[in-house]
Each structure stands twice: as structure tokens, then as C-alpha cells.
Amino acid sequence: MLAKRIIPCLDVRDGRVVKGINFEGLRDAGSILEQARFYNSEMADELVFLDISASIESRRTTLEEVLKVSGEVFIPLTVGGGISSVERARDAFLHGADKVSVNTAAVNEPELISRIAERFGSQAVVVAIDVKKVNGEYIVHTHSGKMPTQYEAVEWAHRVQELGAGEILLTSMDRDGTQEGYDNEILKQISTSVHIPVIASGGAGNLEHLYEGFTKGHADAALAASIFHFRTYSIRQAKEYLHERDIPVRL
């Protein structure tokens, strides 16, 4: 069985790491470089760098910061926010990204997924899917959760897989920052109906939540921010906890 991954996420705005609740009420969570160095030393499996206001502000990701981070970490780095063309994806790779994450641009222009995958390989394309429950349905949202789309989450997950996505980053907007646990209902629906890896995101508040994301949600990786940024737990603690409960992890 493939090892399950633990992935800290740097939500970046105005040159700092930030963290909010339900995509709102952002608070400072430290220096980008200090957090990146910490996660590298902690042997996180990967690191995600999301410029959370790039799509809203119709600009490209802050690649100077990406370059600084890539120079400090020796683990796979995924970069997202404002990746709206093959050229912008290329720029991110040239600045040290191993993968790019697309969300808003992919909904606006689904074929972008295929074009990036054809140019750089499916393994380099992560499609971020931000979902919110609306009238009992999980609806995909864009622009950092500001705009609902016509897509239902499972339907969109199947579509991005067909278009060549190598991985899905699934974030529950309802759970984001609440530390109440992942939304394992939609996580399981998607994880068990696609054959590409699915990363759980939104709601991790303790180590049991990570465990449940893998066992109840069938996720391939667990992304978390608050519990690691504010040092509630270390990556090592998380992995040891999971290992003791028979979840395969890299120690």
C-alpha cells in the first residue's frame, strides 16, 4: 500500500502566511520562509504554497516568494493561485514548483488542465476543488470561495480526471479553519469514485481528524494548516500517531 502523505499548506497573502475560517477572517500565521524551513526540517511529505488572493485580484502568483521557498525546501512543492495559462504554469515550474494547482482558471477554461498536463505531465497538475454545501448539494466554488459555479463536486472531479489532472485537492469551505474535522462524506464520495489521488483539506483540528480523513474519507493525503502553523502538533507527532494506528506513512 502506498504511504499516506501529510502536507502542510502555506496560504499566502501580502508576503505572509495567513489562516482564516471558512475562507474569511484571515489572521497572521508567520513568515513564509520560517514556516517553509520548519516543514522541511520536520520532513513533511510535500508543501503547498497558495497565493490565496491572486485569482480575486486577477494577477499572477508571487513567484519571487516561490523562488525563495523552493531554495529552502527539499520536498515536493505545489504552487497555486493565479495559474491561468500554460505560460504561468511554466513560470511557476521555472521558479521551483514541482506541481501547479489550478482552480478558478480550470473552471473558466477546463481545457487548460489538458494543456498543462500535455506540456508538463499529469503528475504536475493538481486541480483544487473548493466545495460548499448548498441546498443539500456539494457545489464547486471559485475565486477563493467567493463565487459558486454550475458544477456539482463529484461531477467536476470526474471531469478534471478525464481532462488529465494528476491529483485533486478537495477543500470543504464549510469546514475550513473550524478544526472540526474534514467533511468525510464528500471526501469519500470523490476518493472512491476517481482513480487519481485525492488530498483532504479543510477542518483538521487534531490528529484523530487526520486518521478519519484516511479511514472514513479514503483520502490519499491529508493537508492541514492551523494545527501545524501554530505548533499544536508537529509533523512527526502526526506521523507517529498514524503509524501506531496502522496507517502507512513515511517516518
From TrEMBL:
This is Imidazole glycerol phosphate synthase subunit HisF. GO terms for cellular component: cytoplasm. Belongs to the HisA/HisF family. GO terms for molecular function: imidazoleglycerol-phosphate synthase activity; lyase activity. PANTHER family: IMIDAZOLE GLYCEROL PHOSPHATE SYNTHASE HISHF (PTHR21235:SF2), IMIDAZOLE GLYCEROL PHOSPHATE SYNTHASE SUBUNIT HISF/H IGP SYNTHASE SUBUNIT HISF/H (PTHR21235). Its EC number is 4.3.2.10. HAMAP family: HisF. IGPS catalyzes the conversion of PRFAR and glutamine to IGP, AICAR and glutamate. The HisF subunit catalyzes the cyclization activity that produces IGP and AICAR from PRFAR using the ammonia provided by the HisH subunit. GO terms for biological process: L-histidine biosynthetic process. The gene is hisF. It is found in: Cytoplasm. The keyword Transferase does not apply.
